[in-house]
Amino acid sequence: MSKEAIEKKDESLKIKDESPKSEDESTQTNNESLEIKEEAQVTEASSEAHDTTEAETKEVKATAKAGKRSEKGIKEAEEKVAKIEKQKHAAEAKAEEAEKPKQHRNPTRSRLDRRGKKFKEVAKLVEVDKLYTFKEAVELSLKTSTTKFDATVELHVRLNVDPRQADQNLRDNLVLPAGTGKTVRVAVFADEDIAKDAKKAGADIAGADDFLKQLDKGEINFDILIATPNVMAKLSKYARVLGPKGLMPNPKSGTVTTDVAKAVSSAKAGRVEYRVDSTGIVHLGIGKVSFGAAKINQNLDAVIASIKNNKPSSIKGSYVKSITLSTSMGPGIKVSPSEI
User: What letter does residue 107 receive in the DSSP assignment?
Assistant: First the structure.
């Protein structure tokens, strides 16, 4: 072989030896580039996380512990804005309603105009501004009764008392001379011996244990209940039933007594009880229209005398403010307070 050929062969072998080195260098450079990319991604992720934490800290810093930037302050500000918007909408709705044409309304009629024909006719007999005497008022009340049934003559007296004061809480009972015109059913709860005497005096129901059995069944067939003091403890069980109906015996009304026969006879004769209501007015029926003027005047005198006798000592000035007499469903007739 020539010398040139040998030299060419040696160069080719050198080139072959260098080629694997270049391949190793290229793989190394590729690996380095991948590592650089990974590092860049990690740094980007860490920077993003850092940015989010910074934003969260800024939000935390934005809400302070107190003041306008606190959670309470921000909530109050939002509520205020919502309230202003609501008021604005309400004002707009009100303005729209004002623009709408108003509907025609009929004028309200007086109380007399709303009454029936019969009432209007008899109301003409009563002078509104006049104060009548008792005799005139009784005669006029009988003329102004328009009902088909036997109407009750009613007395309404407004007193200058304060029912909240114990000494001014007026209460009394009396027997009307001409009676009430009502059939009263009287019951007596007492021992057997006293119950027999009550039956003789005219009681409709009288008994002891038998009477309690009727109450247990809910049978209340009486208008007035009279009892003796020694059996009142047994009646306390039925106070919730009898009390609201005004049937519970009471010493002030004369229904708790040892003299049962007298209480029964007075109840049958026409005993009535009255007391002032929360506004200081006494309401009481003093008879029926069928009684006539004479009997009604008798009952009226008895009631007026009782009201006079029960005048509280603590009242100064006028005792009676106003008096009105009327019949059931009839017009009111004003009576002069000087009549008492």
Answer: P
The 10 Å CB-count burial string (b at 16+, else e) for 195-225 is bebbbebebbbbbbeebbeebeeeebebbbb
Q: What is the pTM of this model?
A: 0.60
Whether 340 shows a pLDDT value over 90: the answer reads no
Distance CA(202)–CA(334), nearest Å, equals 39
In a 3-state reduction of DSSP, which class is residue 207? strand
Number of domains in the chain: 4
Q: What is the dihedral of CA 54, 60, 62, 63, to 10 degrees?
A: 180
The enclosing domain of 335 has a CATH number of: 3.30.190.20
Measure the CA dihedral 8/10/15/21, to 10°: -170
**CATH number (domain holding residue 202):** 3.40.50.790
Condensed to tens digits (0 to 9), the pLDDT of residues 180-233 reads 888 888 999 888 888 888 888 888 888 888 888 888 888 888 888 999 988 888
Taking alpha carbons only, the member of 155, 184, 174, 182 closest to residue 296 is: 155
Residue 260 and residue 297 in one domain: no
Among 226, 225, 234, residue whose Cα is nearest residue 258: 226
Helix (H) or strand (E) segment spanning residue 275: strand 271-275
